[in-house]
Write a structure and sequence with these properties.
mainly alpha, disordered N terminus
Length: 142
């Protein structure tokens, strides 16, 4: 679905709509996240109950720290040693997509809410960076 939205130039709108916390949007948000097959923590999406999968935090570390393949491997190895979670690497690709889409949508909403300010420009740069992450994660995206 994300590749289709990116190709249609509708990613920002879809993610922005899907990440609103108000009534009508909660169902859209939940549907998008189910489609991505993820369980997101209450602290990020309060409308969805349940524990946060640690793969969300691993994905956050990968993207926020700009880890290369070697860094990702080392992080996953350390996490598996500490947790015993042998399937973390299998879940990571979906969580990378979900994290980049969620944070990108958040940055778009923040940019739009800030009007013509320095903060709006900063959030615009952040949104563009997450859009680029999504393009790398989805090779068929424009």
């Amino acid at each position: 679905m994300l590749a289709v939205l990116i190709a249609a130039g509708q990613l920002e709108s879809a993610i922005c709509d899907a990440t609103f916390a108000d009534g009508d949007r909660a169902d859209q948000r939940a549907a998008l996240l189910r489609q991505l097959s993820i369980d997101v923590a209450r602290e990020y999406l309060a409308a969805l109950d349940g524990p946060q999968n640690p793969a969300w935090d691993v994905a956050a570390a990968v993207l926020e720290r700009g880890l290369d393949r070697h860094g990702v491997r080392r992080l996953l190895e350390a996490y598996v040693r500490a947790s015993g979670d042998e399937q973390a690497a299998d879940r990571l690709p979906g969580y990378l997509l979900a994290y980049a889409a969620f944070r990108g949508g958040y940055a778009v909403m923040a940019r739009d809410a800030c009007g013509d300010t320095e903060d709006a420009a900063r959030f615009g740069r952040i949104a563009a960076a997450y859009r680029e992450h999504l393009r790398r994660l989805i090779p068929s995206a424009p």
